[in-house]
Structure formats: C-alpha cells, structure tokens
Amino acid sequence: MFRMKILLAGLAIIAATFGNALAQPDKPTIVLVHGAFADSSSWNGVVEILEKDGFSVVAAANPLRGVRSDGDYVAGVLASIEAPVVLVGHSYGGSVISDAAGGHANVKALVYVAAFAPEVGETAAQLAGKFEGSTLGPTLAPPVALSGGGKDLYIQQDKFHDQFAADVSDAEGRLMAATQRPITEAALNEAQTKAGWKNIPSWFIYGDADKNIPPRASAYMAERAHARETVAIKGASHVVMVSNPEPVARLIENAATEISR
C-alpha cells in the first residue's frame, strides 16, 4: 500500500509538470533592432518590461551602413536563435528587419515601432517624403565624409531634442544627442529588395507627433501591410519606445501571444 501511494504521488507530480508544460509553452525570443541616430540603449525601458514578464531579449547593434548589409548582420543574429522570434525594428530598423526576416522560418512576427516598412524598390527617404510632416532634412548636420567613400549623417545636437525626442526630458535629450550613432546617406536611399511584412504577420505602433516619419506615412504602411494591430500614441515623438515603453512592450507581447497560439 505504501509503495502504491508513492507511485501514485509520483504520477501526480509528472502529470502536473506535463500539464504545466502544455499550459505554458516557451515564450518566443524578442529581437530588437534600433534605427538611425540611436543605439541599442534606446530599448532599455522596453527590455526591462519584457524581461520582467519572462521574455528572452536580444537588442542587436545595427551597423547603420546599408539595408542589405545591415539585414545580413541581423540575419546572422537570427540564425543563432533556435526559438521562435518576434523581430522588432525602430525607424530605419524597420527596413532592416523587413530584409533580415526572409529565409528565417523562426521569425513569426514583425513589429514596427515608428518604423519604415518599405515595399520592394522603395527607400526610407522616399517613404519619409511621401506625406507632408517630416522636418528631418533641415536639422541634419553637414555630412561627414568617409575614407572609403560615402557620407555619414548626424542630427545637429542643438536640434536633436525637438526633432527626434521632444517628449523626453531635456537632460535625456542632451545625452541622446551626444551619443547618437550616424547612418550613411546611402542607407536611407537604398532600394528595398525584400519585404518581410508581405508574408509575416505585422504589428505597428507610432507617435502622432513624430517629426521624422510623418504619422500619415506610418498609418499608410500599417494599412498596406494589413497589420494585425496598429497603435498611435498621442503626443509621442519618433522615439516612442523611449518615452512610452509600456505600450510598446505590450504590443510586442501581444504579437508574442498571438504567435504562441
């Protein structure tokens, strides 16, 4: 009788463990790709929420050299991850994730955070100018010539806060201006060769006070991609993930939940 009780208790533990495994499938890994004039630290607030909620997160260092080459770099990161992936891009990072997702069966969702979602043949610069509202051009500093040819672009530091991140504190805006990473002029004018959003479910979030990508352009791209969910944050700037990490993280988690079903 005693042995039978032990056996039954053991079976109960196994059944409970197996049941929990079925009820709580492994969560996808979240891969975050920053855009121009930013770096991976721009995701810090979002990462904190996602990790607290049990997600594994990788914030890739986007080289900002060109859509194809940056896409290849991110593709290498994706190849190192065995789990399903929710791939997230901000700004120019949207062009990069649209390129990188192709050929990676583990990428189950794309999330565009104030990001470009170009059609094949389109450029980020074309999409930014498709609708009125972008004031980025006049705020750019004189281009920096590169030794191998081409030019790097920065935003003038005294114009950075108002143009790029108007809804963060002055102190944080100054830090972001000083630590901004440049993008090549060629990258913003490189035609897209892959559009991952055409065959991978997508989610969009952006600020309705974005001065880099006009809100109308973001709404247009979301509608064109048949986004599963589109969120416009009232008063948010281009760095909506910095100023409003909570709704950005929630949208990413919504995508993760849907693909986990």
Please provide a written account of the structure.
Helix content is 42%, strand content 16%. It is an alpha/beta fold. A six-stranded parallel beta sheet has the order 2-1-3-4-8-9, with helices on both faces. Helix 2 (44-52) crosses helix 11 (245-260), helix 3 (67-79) crosses helix 4 (93-100) and helix 6 (157-164) crosses helix 7 (170-179). Mean pLDDT is 92; it is low at 1-24.
Report the sheet with the most strands, covering strand number, pairing sense and barrel closure: 6 strands, parallel
Rg result: 21 Å
CATH topology: Rossmann fold
Q: What is the CATH domain class?
A: Alpha Beta
Please name the defining characteristics of this protein.
261 residues; alpha/beta; Rossmann fold; 6-stranded parallel β-sheet; 11 helices; 42% helix; 16% strand
Outline the secondary-structure elements.
Blueprint lengths: L1 H22 L5 E5 L10 H9 L4 E4 L6 H13 L5 E7 L1 H8 L6 E9 L8 H5 L15 E2 L5 E3 L3 H8 L5 H10 L3 E2 H4 L13 E6 L7 H10 L4 E5 L6 H4 L1 H16 L1
Helix pairs in contact: 2-11, 3-4, 6-7
How would you concisely characterize the structure shown here?
The protein is an alpha/beta fold. The protein is 42% helix and 16% strand.
